[in-house]
Amino acid sequence: MNTQWRFSAVTTKDLQVFFKDRIMVFTIFALPLIVSLIIGSPYLGGGEEVINLPMILVDQDPGKYSDDIVDILEDINELELTEMSSFDEAIALVGEGQMLAAVYIPSDFTQRVEDYEQALITVVIDPAQAQYSSMITTIMEEVTEPVVIQGEMRYGTRAVMLDVGLLESDNPDEVTAAEAQNEGAVSAQMEEIRNNPKVEVRKEHYEDATVYNPPNAFSVFVPGFTVLFAFFVVPILSVELIREREEGTLRRLVSAPIGRGSIVVGKILAFMLVVILQVAIVFLVANLAFGMPLGDSPIGLLILTLALGFVATALGLMLAGLARSRSQANSLGLMVVFGVGVLGGCFPLGPVLLSRTEGILGIISKLTPQAHALEGYRVLLVEGGGLMDVLPQIGILLGMGILFFLIARWRFKF
Amino acid sequence: MKMLSIALKDLQIFFKDRGGVLYLFLLPIVFLILFAGIGSAMDAGGGDRVIQLPVVNLDPAGRKADEFMDALRDATQVEVTLYEEAEARELINQKEIDFILFIPEDFTTDLNADQKVYVKLVVHPNAPSLDVNNVERVINRAGRGIMLIDYFSTQLDLFRRMQAMNPRVQRYITEERIQQQADKQMAQSKDRPLVAVLETTPAALMDEEEAQIPELGQIAVVGFTVMFVFLAAQNTAQSIFEEKREGTFRRLIISPISKTGLLGGKLLPNFVLTLLQVLFMLLAGILLLPLFGVPPLDLSSDPLGLVLASLVIALCSTSLGIFIAALAKTQGQVGGISNIILWIAALIGGSIVPSFFLPDIVNSIARFVPHYWANQAYFGLILRGGTLVNVWMDLLVLLGFTLLFFLIGAWRFKFE
Asked: Sign of dihedral through CA atoms A24, A28, A32, A33?
């Protein structure tokens, strides 16, 4: 019997064992698609990501200035406005985290602006979601600004009129007329500012950009979760190896006319095959069901996926060498899947890969194999790259894999 | 007494198993350190997200352009950086930046000549729409800000023309008078804006104190505490299975200890361990966070409520452990599928990423995992500065989960 045949026997056996475990098959092949579908569902319409900032408005002011503010607020797309009459109820909802913020316009708001006294708007935010709830404060600072301009203009004209004695004229008609004209002038000017500001923004899209983020949201989520779940071979393989060692199967295998090398190679091949099948099936389904682009380089995809399979398998072997018990291997393995996976950027928080962001987060991310696999898929699927463009990623993954493998060889006892 | 001796034995076994100690205590700390570091790096001071706004100023000598730049810099939600045009184009090409704002060459000249000017905002096609809207509002606001005096004098001018028949107006309301009034009001509005927007929190409103806005690192620690407490359920299940596998359970059943006593004794040490873990995590949140420039967790709003909440959460985790042990057929399932479910539940329940990021569907599923309620309780007591009054509902739901887990667990549990 030649050696090749021997390790293929190990491979076949391991594949059989794997495919018998229906839960694992489900985890590896179905979960990436299910999670992608759940997270990606808001994008299925093909439109832009919809972000809503749910807030409550408590407007107790009968005056016109609060009406102006409400009008502007209603035009802001990203706000999900709920009007309520009770400020206390609104605070309670924010306190429970149901709403990001409650905005309170007091009953004397318009009166105070007209009297040229400082008027106060209270924004009660949920501190546990401050990153987003604080946005509502800045939005309020902006939308109150036209009110400020009006108030200042009105007061300014009145001040000048007082100076001139216009408001104490003997002729009440003259006073009324002057006031009315002041109102008219202010309104006209506000209209002008709103419709024809002196400084206007012209927005244009930068169409020549060479680096695009994925136009299809699923090309963010699907590779992310595929790589995340690909690393499930780490706990599976290491638990399986330790079990075989504990049950003495390994020792029996070693005493059979089959080299230790064959056993290891056989196992590596089996789990690499699992990863390749996983990527093939998940990507294909994502392509057919969600229209995720597959890029132009099948050969690049294949080799990158082989490297991914190798590094995950080697990591599983290393863990089997380092862990003392099955439960330890399993716990540490799941840490690798989820903990390291999140750091590697498998759980996409935005369209930009975590490893491509600046700062400490990007640096930490680059230390994980997941990040390099994701980078490779991003280049291949989205940015139109070929095999040559992902050679660095393939190299890094292989290098990491060899390192893990060497540690495994050093520590693993049959 | 018998229960206690089982509990004591279990604790001894646990602390001998270095892997278990690692999983329950060390890994949470590693996680905490990583994410606290990340959190403090992402938080550019305070809770606000700061958007980068690169500006190419083609009117560098102009006074109005200068004022415009200053007004942009005053906006808290953007960070303004000056670039040369070529450099900025290269950066947006690589999507290093999302925006370029061009201030045109004749910005100042045109404005002074009462001409309308257009500033060009170049937007990368993939810039987040929330940021695009925000940046546009900031620019519009800065534009109105620098024109305030002009708008004011135009308006007074308009008024003067309306009063053309009034000699007094024509005589006294002069260009100088208008300018003087505008300057006075501008100076005044700097110290005392006519409309003030006060940001506060529900707890601060109640206690009439200054609002405490937690940082990302602090939020992360609280979420992780919940996640790891429930991961410990897996530990409970494992220890039960270990006992089953070695047949010690069978031996114990013969001994004069009731089954309830046995399960209770099994529960107690794991409950104590979980509590220790909570204590450990919260202490780390107080002692370790400051090392990363993140303020320590503030546990002062209702210490008694916090203790009660921790007891309830730990109890829920322990009974979840029995539930898992009762339903799992093999030890492999305890480690495998239940662990996966616990991680995914932590994700859905808002422990790993803020639930705000997740779509509505996920958020409605979230109510069916205990993590969500535990997060709500801890967020309420630690981050929102609330008291037991605010979170008793969450704790009640958790107790419901506890009861459910325990009843199903006890019903399905096989000592063999």
From this structure: negative
Torsion of CA B349, B350, B353, B357, to 10 degrees: 100
Task: Name which of A159, A203, A350 is nearest B136 (Cβ-Cβ).
Answer: A203
Q: Do B193 and A148 touch (CB under 8 A)?
A: yes
Tokens of B245: 């596998």
Question: CB–CB of B99/B54 below 8 Å?
Answer: yes
**Which residues of chain A make contact with B337, given a CB cutoff of 8 A?**
23, 27
Instruction: Note whether A290 and A216 are within 8 A (CB).
Output: yes
Predicted TM-score of the model (pTM): 0.71
Which two three-digit tokens encode residue A305?
Answer: 């996926």
- What are the beta bridge partners of residue A124? A102, B200
Longest pairwise C-alpha distance within chain B? 113
Burial level of B221, CB count in 10 A (0-12/13-18/19+)? buried
Tokens 């049950």 identify what position?
Answer: A247
Give per-residue pLDDT as tens, A311-349: 999 999 999 888 888 878 887 888 788 888 888 888 776
Instruction: Closest CB to B356: pick one of A125, A132, A165.
Output: A132
DSSP string covering B84-105, please?
-HHHHHHHHHTTS-SEEEEEPT
Buried b / exposed e over B51-70, threshold 16 CB at 10 Å, is bebbbbbebeebebbbbbbe
Tell me, what's the pLDDT at A104? Answer: 95
β strands within A271-334, DSSP E: none
d(CA B314, CA B232): 9
Helices of type H across A196-232: 218-230
pLDDT tens per residue, range B75-84:
877 889 999 9
* Burial state string for A351-384 with b = 16 or more CB within 10 A and e = fewer than 16: bbbbbbbeeebbebbbebbbbbbbbbbbbbbbee
Query: Are A100 and A56 spatial neighbours (Cβ–Cβ below 8 Å)?
Result: no
Residue A355 DSSP label: G
pLDDT in tens, A367-382: 999 999 999 998 898 8
Would strands B51-57 and B99-103 be described as parallel, antiparallel, or unpaired? parallel
Closest partner residue to B173 (CB to CB) among A128, A160, A239 is: A160
